[in-house]
From TrEMBL:
Species: Peribacillus deserti
Transmembrane intervals: 47-71, 78-101, 121-143, 150-169, 211-232, 291-314, 321-340, 381-401
Protein's UniProt keywords contain Methyltransferase: no
Nucleoside transporter/FeoB GTPase Gate domain mapped to chain residues: 44-139, 220-314
Protein name: Sporulation integral membrane protein YlbJ
Length: 407
């Protein structure tokens, strides 16, 4: 049996197996679907939509090209990517998964990146946003604000380290010396901005409508993946597959003297980061340090759910998925290592100098913590924002279809 036929058999068998599991566990699948849907319309949609729309507009107006010319002298020597990679990196950190992949694909489609440059860039520009790390994980799961600093530093430091490592990927690609020795030029950046804006002949209304439509299409796709992997994770647990496969992880955890109770949360986190992080925070018999290291690894690896979203976005271009997947494994290892290094100076030393925080009651929101307050507001008003945005999206789509039919 050749590779193509084997792949067909595996995919078909997986689909049949999933359908059978849905029939056997309909109630559990329904509950998991509701959980995924709530996560999408309360947090994912309202947090990503503004960033996606603004990013599309910045690209259309030429601002991204302007930033790219300015950052070329920094991004090229460090990461061997064009200056526009700085914009993608910043937006990826601010907004979270999978905005880095979306913007990288967009720039690749416009020809601002070569395939190898795009594969380098997408490998280190996809990360969790600060709201999720501080609000959901640190406050919502661990009830400890100080852990957010360690998790965020480890996450973004490992992100940066992966970018440095990936600069050696595809090193045979020819890069001219002149291209890598450019100096900062405001004049050249302004010229590039103007030329890009003139080249895009769409009026402002059309550009804004395209940005909204493209962004919501992406978020609908993301929502489907969030719900699907929430269901898969739940079904694997109820069918006992999670317990069986996590048994192999116990041996790996034992090598590092980690509690075996972390094996199931780690397996869950490999599929979906939110559930994995939550289960890790609730693991019995594991030290807080080990819980935080596993959580850091889960955040960096990002889970098959987000990786599937990225794969779907990259499929629209010639960017290969494997470099991104390999980078996730590397970042997970780096994140765990940085967490271990940062633990004593940032947590244990502070515990000796300050009064321990103790366990906070569920739903507690510190008044001075803007991240957790924002996360709380998103959970409260996120569904309203999502419904209003979808309503506007339907109106825009209807008007475009009506206008097309008249023409």
């Amino acid at each position: 049996m050749n590779r193509s036929r084997f792949k067909t058999v595996v995919l078909s068998a997986s689909a049949v197996f999933l359908a059978g599991a849905l029939i056997k566990f309909p109630q559990e699948a329904f509950q998991a679907s509701i959980r995924g849907l709530n996560m999408w319309w309360e947090i994912v949609f309202p947090s990503l939509l503004p960033f996606l729309i603004i990013s599309e507009m910045l690209i259309g107006f030429g601002v991204v090209r302007f930033i790219g010319v300015l950052l070329e002298p920094f991004m090229r020597p460090l990461f061997r990517v064009p200056g526009v990679g700085g914009f993608v990196w910043a937006m990826g950190m601010a907004s979270g998964f999978p905005v880095g992949a979306k913007l990288t694909s967009r720039l690749r489609q416009e020809g601002q990146l070569t395939r190898t440059e795009a594969e380098r860039l997408v490998a280190f520009t996809n990360c969790s946003n600060p709201i999720f790390i501080f609000g959901a994980v640190s406050i919502g799961f661990f009830y400890n604000t100080r852990l957010g600093i360690i998790l965020a530093l480890a996450h973004y430091l490992s992100n940066f380290t992966v970018g440095i490592v990936m600069r050696f990927y595809g090193k045979d690609e020819d890069i001219s010396p002149e291209k890598s020795k450019k100096k900062i030029s405001i004049k050249a950046a302004l010229i590039a901005l103007h030329r890009t804006r003139i080249k895009d002949k769409r009026p402002i209304g059309k550009l804004l409508g395209d940005a909204v439509q493209s962004s919501i299409n992406t978020l609908l796709m993301i929502g489907g993946f969030v719900i699907l992997f929430s269901v898969i994770n739940k079904l694997l647990f109820h069918m006992g597959i999670t317990a069986v496969l996590s048994g192999g992880m116990k041996h790996i955890l034992n090598l590092f003297n980690f509690s075996e109770s972390l094996s199931v949360p780690l397996f869950a986190g490999i599929f979906e980061i939110t559930l994995g992080s939550q289960m890790t925070s609730q693991a019995q018999g594991a030290s807080l340090l080990h819980q935080v290291i596993i959580t850091s690894f889960i955040l960096a690896f990002s889970g098959f759910s987000i990786q599937a979203q990225v794969a779907s976005i990259l499929a629209e271009t010639d960017i290969r998925f494997f470099p991104f997947f390999a980078a996730r494994i590397l970042q997970g290892l780096f994140a765990g290592f940085y967490t271990l290094l940062l633990w004593q100076p940032l947590y244990e030393n502070n515990c000796c100098q300050e009064k321990a925080l103790g366990v906070l009651p569920a739903g507690w929101i510190p008044e001075s913590d803007s991240m957790s307050s924002l996360f709380y507001l998103m959970g409260k008003y996120g569904p309203v924002f999502t419904l209003v945005s979808l309503f506007l999206y339907i109106i825009i789509l209807y008007l475009r279809i009506f206008q097309t039919s008249r023409n």
